[in-house]
What does this fold into?
Amino acid sequence: MNTTGWVKGLRVTGDGTGIVSHAGVALIRALADNIGLTAGLSKALASDRLLVHDRGRVLADLACAIADGGEVISDFRVIGDQQELFGLVASVPTAWRTLDEIAGGGQRALGRITAAVNDARRRAWAAAVSRHGALPGVRIAGKTLDGVTCIRLDASVVTCHSDKEGAEPNFKGFGLHPLLAYCDNTAEPLAGMLRPGSAGSNTAADHLAVLDAAIGALPPAFRRRLMVTCDGAGASHDLIARLDELACRRGYQLIYSVGWELGARERAAITAVPAQAWQIAVDPRGEIRERRADQACSDLGCGHRRCWIEEAHVTELTSLLRAGPAGDQLAGWPATMRIFARRERPHPGAQLTLFEAGDGWRYTLWVTSRPVSTRGWLGQPAYIDAAHRVHARVEDAILPQGSSACCMTLGELVM
It folds into this structure.
C-alpha cells in the first residue's frame, strides 16, 4: 500500500478560488504517513479479508480527526466530505467497524498497535534531533532543563452524560477515570489506561502499569535520564519504591517528584521549622513570589501580614523527620527520598484544614529524589519546588472534559 500517494503533487497556495475547510488536517495526515505511522498501523491491523478501506489508514484518519478537534466518531465525516483534498476516506460506519474489530482483537491487537505507534515515535524523535540537535527541554520557572526526558502521570475524570461502558459515579459526578502518562518535552501521550469512573486516584497497580508502559514507549536513547512526576492524589508507597528501584539501575538516572500527604508527623515537623529556614519561592517566570503591598509600612523587614502579598516560601523537612526528637519517622521509605513543604497565603475562598487555619498558611508537601549534592539553580529549594509545581502543566495536554470515551481512547492510543 502506498500510504503517501494521496499527497503527491499537493500544493499550498493563497490565490486559489473557493474555500476548503479544515485543510490543515492534510499536514497532520501527511506527517502520519511520512513517519511511518499509517504503514505501521496497516501492518498491525492486516487481515486476510478483502477490504475496501485499509484499517491502518482508517485508524490514522480517526487520529487526525481528533487532532482537528473531533469529539465524537461522527466528526470523522469532516475528512470524508472533502475527497478532492483527502482522496478516498472511509465512511463513519466503516470507522465504527474498524474500532469494533480492534476491540475484538483484545490485548494482542493493542500490543501490535502500541508497537506501531512507538516505532513511529522513534522515527519522529530521531528526525527532530537530527534537525534541532535535541528534544525540547523541560521548562521550569523561566529556565530549561536539557537532556532529561520528563514523564508526568495524572488521572483525569472524564464526565459522561450518558451510561457509557465503564461510566460510574465518582467524586466529580459521573463518568470515567482514565490514568494517563505524558511526555512533558513534547506534550504527547505515552501511555494510558481506561478505568471506570469509580477507580481510585492512587491505585498503585495502575500507576505502575502505566509508568512501565510510558518508559517502554520512549525511544531507548531517551530512557537514560528521566524525570517522573505525580501529584499527591496518585502517591503511594509502591509507586515511590518502584521509582527508587528504577533510579538505582547502573547507567541510568531517574529523579522523581511525588505529592505527599500533610499528616500528623508532617504538621509537627512544620511547627518545628525555624522562621529563617523558610526560603522565598519563585513563580512560573522565575521571579520571587513575595512583594510588598502598596500600603505597606516603612520597615522592609516587618512581619505584618498586611504588608506582604503573594507570599510563598519553601523549606525541607527531611532532617526533622529523619533525625528529629521522635527518631526516624521515614523508616521504610527510600533513604534517598527528601521531603519538602511549601506554604503560601491562600486565595479567597480556599478551604484550609484546622492546622492551616491556625497560622493562615496553606501547605503543600512533596517528596523527591533530587540529590543534596545537586549544584546550580536546580539544587535550590525554590527551583526544586518549581520543578514539582509545573506538574500541573500535564492538565493542558489532557483532552477537554466533555470528550467522549471513544475519543479519549483513540487520542491516547494513536496520537
Q: What stands out?
A: The chain has two domains: 5-120, 135-415.
